[in-house]
């Protein structure tokens, strides 16, 4: 992964995510792009045409972004660029960001979010959560209380009801860059149609790949199992697939998210389908 994108609104949460991203970029020798999305005001001119204030409003944002980038280049010795995205051209924050990602070959988006005692609950309904549901590349969500440490162990959580190849490819593309260990937590659901086939696929996967540990758990024990895995194995990041809206939203809105109090300091790696 060579290019990271960090959206910022210059808040403390965004600033924390930016510092995390800069440290990760330094570890992985990656380029960092800092962007600010401007919600431009469109005003009617006397001629009846709509006129934007883009040029005038972009300048101070570029000055602010460049000041931040200069400090990171000096402190972290990384390649750092800046950009301003005008939301009115795209219709929404999510569309504008995705188009920028595709145009600039971004490999990973790193975003901050509020995080008190339970950052998953706090994340629901925010720009970060809404973007995760439509993102075209992996998103690493950084809680406000998280400080960077080398990523040595990632836990991937899924029910494996459908083909997980595309998500695992993204996961291993990320972990290969940092030689991190991966623990796959397979949530067994009694309603699964292909339980035996999925288990065989996972067993084959762990045989083929190094640094992969497979853990089978019942759905009712998910919270306890994740908690134990994180506590006992010093997991640095929790990764989840977002191929199905129902799984992703149930995961965050059910008792699982409400009970994961420890997760207030654990970054979340969201892996999209396309």
UniProtKB/TrEMBL annotation:
Fetch the CDD domains from UniProt: USP-like
List the SUPFAM superfamilies hit by this protein, alphabetically. Answer: Adenine nucleotide alpha hydrolases-like
The record's InterPro entries line, in alphabetical order, gives: Universal_stress_UspA (IPR006015), UspA (IPR006016)
**Pfam families, per database record:** Usp
Which regions form coiled coils? none
Superkingdom, taxonomy of origin: Bacteria
- Annotated ranges, domain UspA: 1-143
What is the similarity comment for this entry?
A: Belongs to the universal stress protein A family.
Q: Output this protein's name.
A: Universal stress protein
What organism is recorded for this protein? Answer: Adhaeribacter radiodurans
């Amino acid at each position: 992964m060579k290019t990271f994108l960090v959206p910022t609104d210059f808040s403390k949460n965004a600033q924390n995510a930016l510092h995390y991203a800069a440290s990760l970029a330094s570890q992985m020798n990656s380029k960092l792009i800092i962007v600010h999305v401007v919600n431009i005001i469109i005003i009617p001119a006397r001629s009846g045409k709509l006129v934007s204030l883009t040029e005038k409003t972009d300048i101070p944002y570029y000055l602010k972004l460049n000041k931040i980038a200069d400090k990171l280049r000096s402190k972290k010795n990384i390649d750092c660029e800046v950009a301003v995205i005008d939301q009115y051209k795209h219709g929404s924050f999510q569309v504008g960001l995705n188009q920028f990602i595709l145009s600039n070959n971004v490999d990973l988006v790193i975003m901050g979010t509020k995080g008190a005692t339970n950052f998953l609950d706090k994340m629901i309904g925010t720009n970060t959560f809404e973007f995760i549901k439509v993102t075209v590349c992996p998103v690493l969500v950084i809680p406000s209380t998280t400080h960077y440490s080398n990523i040595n162990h990632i836990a991937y959580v899924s029910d494996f009801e459908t083909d997980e190849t595309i998500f695992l490819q993204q996961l291993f593309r990320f972990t290969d860059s940092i030689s991190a260990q991966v623990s796959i937590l397979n949530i067994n659901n009694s309603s699964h149609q292909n339980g035996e086939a999925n288990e065989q696929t996972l067993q084959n996967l762990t045989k083929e790949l190094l640094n992969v540990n497979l853990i089978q758990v019942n759905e009712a024990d998910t919270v306890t199992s994740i908690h134990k895995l994180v506590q006992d194995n010093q997991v640095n990041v929790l990764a989840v697939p977002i191929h199905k809206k129902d799984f992703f939203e149930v995961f965050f809105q059910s008792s699982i998210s409400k009970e994961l109090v420890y997760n207030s300091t654990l970054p979340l790696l969201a892996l999209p389908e396309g």
